[in-house]
Amino acid sequence: MNRSILIVLCDFLLVSLLAFSTVDINKVAHPGAPPMMQSNTPDKRVTGRQDLGDVMRLALDEERRNRDQLVGELSQARALAGQQSRQIQDVQGQLQTKEQQAARLQEAENELRRQFTAAQTNIENLNRQLRATTLESVISKEERAAMEAEARKQTEKANALESRLAQMQKNSQLMASEQEDLRNKLAMSEAANRSAIVQMSQLQEEVDAQRRENAKLSEGVKALAAKSSELAQEIRVSRPMSPNQVFDELITNRVAARFSALKPGIFGMDSTRERQSQTVLATDGTNIFALCHVQDTPLTLWSPGTQWEELTGALMRGASAFSIRSLSFCTMDPRVVLIPVPAAEARALGCKVYHFCSDPYLFQDAVVAGTRGNYYGECKFQIDLTTPQYLKMDHNSLKGLFGKFNPSSGDLVLSKTGELLGVMANNSYCVMVRRFEPAATFRFGPESRHQPTARTLATLYSVVASLPTKLQ
Prior knowledge:
alpha+beta; Helix Hairpins; Thrombin, subunit H; 9-stranded mixed beta sheet; 7 helices; rod-shaped
């Protein structure tokens, strides 16, 4: 197994052990003391996920350096092979030239041999003629001298041809030696070229193997990153936050909701009712919406209901403000109001979008925070089998910042992991919201006129009145 992958796996296991062996320092230091209010100073501790990410980045950097080194060696091998190929071509050209010169020399040598043979033949003929003339007494002295001169001339020519033939043989031997040297050089170049090709093939195989190893490492890093995310989520879920931390995060991400409703009054005077509260944004994975209790709005569930002529509202946080387009009543409990928020507006508000708790029974304690005041506290809750969609708060375990406090309808309830559980339907029961399921919707703004608000509010009131008495 690659050394880098072993390092990453070891660090991953170490982070896992450290994460699951961490204890709640607040509980160890003060076992029975109430949780203290914490400052807004962000937590600067380096998490195991960051260490794991650093280790994975180091492993990837090391693998990239190894790959770059192999690619450089491969480029050098290719350049060397190309240079040796050019040298082989040069040597082959020189050898071909030498072979052509040797062929020409061989032709000249053959021609000289023929001339030398002809000269020797002439000398022999002249010698025979000289001997014949010596025997003949009738030949004149001048003819004999001429024949001897011709014989000397032919002898000198034969000697010159013989000398030239010797020089040609010497040149031919020198040319053969050069050809042998060129053949040896060509053989050495071809051997070096074959060695370079083999080395280049080996380097190419190493580069391919390194690429495959890098691909495997990348897949391993991705798998480890996914495991790291799952581990971080599991650690975050399994590690409870203090009420101070939960409330500090809540007030940092709260959104102000302001509502106004207009209805005709007596003697032609219009009547206006306004409400304002603090809430948060939540998501069910598809929709983003703000949620609050109906009593935090100008609307009232009653029979007969009120016929409102105009409804307006806005969500505000810092310098960002957006008009409310509609308001819906939750199907599970109409007292919970859902305000849809487009994703672009949620990003512009710049606050955390809370997720609903996936395992609400993981911890027995919950954090209750007010929407109309800066109070919060911790209390235990009970599971009521007759109302599975509600949590019953244990008033005997309520602990506030300055002693006991009583939750009220409209308070937000959060888990010890900082996730949203729901909204207090009344002073004892929290309705657990799971998704955006509207039972009825009121349009806001200019489109709010001529809506049957009175009939709708009366119908929703009958739904609440049909609930068990302990939930009303």
